[in-house]
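Prompt: May I have another protein with tokenized structure?
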Amino acid sequence: MQKTYILLAILLGCLLHSQIKMKINLIGLEKTSNGPSYKIQVNLKNTTDDFFAIPVVLTKLKGYFEGDRCVDNLNFTEIKNLDVTVVLKSSGNIMEAYISPFPQYSMEDLLAMQKENKIANSIKQNNLRRWMCEHNISDIKFAEMNKTLSENIVLLNPKEEISWSIFFRPSSLDCLDCDLYFFYMLKEDSDLDFALLHCVDDSIYTYLTEDQKSKLSGYKLYSGELLSNEIKIHYNSMTVPD
């Protein structure tokens, strides 16, 4: 009953915020060392005569957890909220993702990743300090949110439609700057309904500077729920195309 309510709430939110439409298609299936990888084409369309700005990361996905609804995300406090959420249904029931501190890596791989992360973090901090100077920001946390937000705002002209492709790997979701590892535990030879959900709360725009807001003054700042259509996928970790 609760999951049915969640789905109805999502659908209602999408009806109320239908200026932007999100449509998906399955366009490919690839073999990976951790199982199948589904290539999804995503289309985002502005159906109005207005200019819209919508914050969304086009390259990352995150898992769905029971209770995830836009109305529950009253404050934008985590960078990962810019990621699009995977909504999977099995036999009509919404599935939850699982979390783990780390994937199943060998010690050698973990040490190599630790070294790479140290270098990447140093570069990230240098870029962040440069960003703070360029935009006259003194708070590090605000600067981090501001930089990520500013770099991931999609601008849509009236009636404009954009498309991109993204990979859904059930065994590992590439969540943006997540400390946790997201994955879906799926049954072999199972048929699933796949959709994408994206939530944008008004509070996200508090992480823009006045100058940045001014540059977006000709655009409506989108807020609300985006839920795509559902597509069918078949999961089999053992048999995938060469």
